[in-house]
Design brief:
By secondary structure, this protein is an alpha/beta fold. It has 12 helices and 15 strands. It folds into 3 domains: about 80 residues, SH3 type barrels, CATH 2.30.30; about 140 residues, P-loop containing nucleotide triphosphate hydrolases (Rossmann fold, 3-Layer(aba) Sandwich); about 70 residues, Ribonucleotide Reductase Protein R1, domain 1 (Orthogonal Bundle), CATH 1.10.40. The radius of gyration is 23 Å and the shape is globular. The chain binds guanosine-5'-triphosphate (GTP) and zinc ion (ZN).
Length: about 350
């Protein structure tokens, strides 16, 4: 079967894009970034498919006229694009990702575990009450930057808050690259307020503490039900529908919503790049300090303190940067310690087994 994929290649057609119906691939999230990684011949021989669901023993993938499960050979996660090799499915090539969420896998040799790939926007949700915590929001923002996903902060439950303004002001101090929206998840606001990020072909995810309104927001997006294309549910032995561990649900509009408990376990790991992006100004200043190991406290020639004195950076923000950077350092050292501990445990087990064999 030969398919024509030329329309998905970059610079196809004329400059002015004629209004045409979106293809199935585009609704699934196919973008020029992916088509640039393959030739027309590749695309015809090994058609692109997206991983819409990850099971322990198989991957559920969808593409143009394709809806199948393949063995989990390729090191792929939910959201990934594969060039599906019909002759050898487990050898299907995983395309380079626009973004990826990872988490630390405790006690394994592989230090990180892929959670999700090719997410466009992550909504960082916090409610306008005592749960609100700028430092926590900042961690999530750093995480999103590290994953190369655009973060948007959503402040929920304004109907239960006497004065949202101070919370909004605080959230706005995090980064001028991050939008802050106040949203009543229980009203009809989600559909309209989230619309700019929930267009067809977009992939979105939600992060935030328990009880802040993530499920309520997701349900609001699926008001018209889960699209037929995302019949990605399995029936268990009792004939009930069970939500499997990692999957994409498509709204009737064609926006993919990531549903994976793994996102809740995403920790602030290896977020150095994210922190650097979030506190780019402070990081740059720190590079100008006289001493390489400047703690920005009492050292002479400290560019950070100087900027603080000039009122160019905020003390509270500097404190948050210090805390986040220290935590990041701690996470990294505890990981290497944990890794060597794992190894010695492994050695112990091996030597015990050898002794028992004798
Ligand atoms: N008044 C009001 N209640 C809200 C709003 N958003 C969520 N809630 C309520 O807060 C409670 C928790 O909301 P959920 O959507 O279950 O929160 P969650 O973030 O999905 O929580 P987990 O599933 O534990 O991670 C529910 O009773 C919601 O109805 C809001 O904007 N206003
Ligand atoms: Zn300094």
């Amino acid at each position: 079967m030969t398919r024509d994929y030329s329309q998905f290649l970059p610079n196809a057609g004329t400059g002015k894009a004629p209004e045409r119906a979106r293809s199935r691939l585009e609704i699934l999230g196919w973008k020029p970034f992916f088509s640039q990684q393959a030739s027309i011949e590749d695309l015809a021989a090994t058609p692109p498919v997206r991983v819409v669901e990850v099971h322990r023993t198989k991957l559920h993938v969808m593409g143009e006229g394709l809806d199948l499960t393949i063995p989990p050979g390729p090191d792929a996660t939910v959201g990934d694009w594969l060039l599906y090799d019909p002759l050898n499915p487990s050898e299907s090539k995983v395309l380079e990702r626009t973004s990826k969420f990872e988490r630390r896998a405790p006690g394994h040799d592989r230090t990180t575990q892929l959670i999700a790939a090719n997410v466009d926007t992550v909504f960082i949700v916090s409610s306008l009450n005592r749960e609100f915590n700028v430092a926590r929001l900042e961690r999530y923002v750093a995480l999103a930057f590290e994953a190369e996903v655009t973060p948007v902060i959503l402040l929920t439950k304004p109907d239960l808050c006497a004065d949202p303004a101070p919370f909004v002001d605080q959230a706005n101090t995090i980064s001028n690259r991050v939008l802050v929206e106040v949203i009543n998840a229980k009203s009809d606001e989600p559909l309209t307020k989230l619309a700019p990020w929930c267009k067809p072909g977009q992939t979105i995810a939600f992060l935030g503490s328990s009880g802040v309104g993530k499920s309520t927001l997701v349900n609001a997006l699926f008001q018209e039900g889960v699209a037929a294309t995302a019949a990605v549910r399995e029936e268990d032995s009792r004939g009930r529908h069970t939500t499997t561990r990692r999957q994409l649900h498509f709204t009737t509009e064609g926006c993919a919503v990531l549903d994976t408990p793994g996102m809740r376990e995403v920790q602030l790991t290896d977020v150095e790049a994210g922190i650097a992006g979030l506190f780019a100004d402070i990081v740059e200043l720190a590079g100008q300090c006289r001493f390489n190991d400047c703690a920005h406290e009492t050292e002479p020639g400290c560019a950070v303190r100087a900027a603080l004195d000039r009122g160019e950076i905020e003390l509270a923000r500097l404190a948050r940067w210090r805390k986040l950077a220290a935590e990041e350092k701690f996470n990294n050292t505890s990981l290497s310690r944990r890794k060597s501990a794992d190894k010695s445990l492994h050695k112990t087990i091996n030597s015990v087994q050898q002794r028992n064999r004798k």
